[in-house]
Amino acid sequence: MDAVDLVLRKFDGRPHRQVTGRLLGEDAYGTWLGTPRGTVVTYHYGARPLGRTKVSAVRLLPAEKWWMAMFLAEPAKREIYCDVITPLRWTGPAEITVIDLDIDLVRYRDHRVEVEDEDEFEQHRLEMGYPPEIVEGSLSGAASLHEALVRDDEPFASHYRRWLTRVDG
């Protein structure tokens, strides 16, 4: 399986986070990347520049959506972690770049869904001058994603599990 770099930047172009995953495949939901437990993640913020994933995960990057999702293996307390982003761009033969737009949605194993970092979105919207189409895409993407997570729509119900089994296998 081919390695693919997933690069997250902030709206002003600053690097935010980067991880290299294995391209597992594509289906009607988008591109699936696997990151086995122990995968290195580079952070361009905070006190720790490098980290390692604590559990295996599969990442879904839909082609035209304003979000991406990470489905985490047990024993992680979080089942699904989603970033609100600009739609993905292939920026190289093995590189996907997205703009992280701050809002995150988390679904825990008890199916509780929480929205995080709306305050960060508002702060960056003002500081970085998000244009109206970015604000609209972010907010509508977060709203539709929230609804799908709460309703347990696919690929959030069980579809992702077949991809997750391929990460360590």
Automatic annotation (TrEMBL):
<keyword id="KW-0378">Hydrolase</keyword>
<feature type="domain" description="DUF402">
    <location>
        <begin position="12"/>
        <end position="149"/>
    </location>
</feature>
<dbReference type="InterPro" id="IPR007295">
    <property type="entry name" value="DUF402"/>
</dbReference>
<dbReference type="InterPro" id="IPR050212">
    <property type="entry name" value="Ntdp-like"/>
</dbReference>
<protein>
    <submittedName>
        <fullName>DUF402 domain-containing protein</fullName>
    </submittedName>
</protein>
<dbReference type="InterPro" id="IPR035930">
    <property type="entry name" value="FomD-like_sf"/>
</dbReference>
<dbReference type="Pfam" id="PF04167">
    <property type="entry name" value="DUF402"/>
</dbReference>
